[in-house]
Amino acid sequence: MKTTLLVSLLVAFALAVVAPSTSSQVINGRLIGSIYTFEKYDTVNVSKKYVRGFQSALLDATFADFSVHTHFQVAGTLQKKLDEVPDYRFYYLYAQMKNIFGLANLSLGRLPYFAGVGNGTLDGGLLSVRCPENNFKLTLYGGQTTPIEYELKDWKPLKRNFTLGGQLLVNAITNTRIGISYVNRQRERNGYWATREDSMANPFLVFIAPTRAREQYLSGDVAYLCSSGDARIYGRYDYDLNYRKTQRAQLGVRVGVSKDLSLTADFMHRAPRLPYGSFFSVFDLKSLDEIELGADYILFPDLRGFVRGAYVKYSGDRGFRYTVGLAHR
After folding, report:
1. CA dist., res. 40 & res. 52, Å (int)
2. Predicted confidence band of residue 82 (pLDDT cuts 50, 70, 90)
3. Which residues, in sequence order, are CB contacts of 10 under 8 Å at separation 6+?
4. What is the pLDDT of residue 9?
5. Is-contact 276 214, C-beta < 8 A?
């Protein structure tokens, strides 16, 4: 998989270099630096102060329908006395070709994906195909699950460390949008040596090979806008195929009472989202239910005020949440 990703990236950058000079070109870059400090106590009354710095670089280069996108970060402790090698992360590094035959977009490399129940980062490819008039849109993605540290190394065998999924959006029905999505993400965890005791209490070393962390979800959502535009209804349901239980259920309604005032009502049921085989799955973690009512009012053409009140029911407990705010367009 390492060879596949590097070859894809080399091809992408080669295409960017040889892109026709007559094509419209846009290059956008940004540097973000930050520093923070903390104090660490190694023993009682003995502490040491640390200063850690981060430098992020974002670069996007577009040549007509072809583009390259990067987000790189390097971080390290700034004290000279510490023998530390700065670490780096590639949050994304991919090339994209748009409007293939006027119907499809293709991305290759380390890329983010947001498709219904599936969201995250993978080392592979993403293809989105739309039919004329955008009545249907199909998104498919697959590849290697990105290493936890976001480095360009430490890839595991693909058959035990992969991500694949997709989403189908249907807009063919008037005022209605229907979405169906699926994701299957697996990550192989590193093994380790541990000391155990035999029946005679003699210590011996044993290699522990943890099971793969697996996530597999199926989701459907529907959004309906009344022809008058005064009301909108949204519903969503996520099902955990590994645990065979409801992961999330959501229903929301927005009604326009007048030109400036609208009321909202939302219900949500959520279960903890844990990979199958995770250590935390041995605990009896409970779901929560939430009901929220709210109102939005247009104070000025560009300014909206809103207020929300929510009742949250936990296992054996309950809570209330209140929100008041202003939003500018």
Report:
1. 13
2. low
3. none
4. 56
5. yes
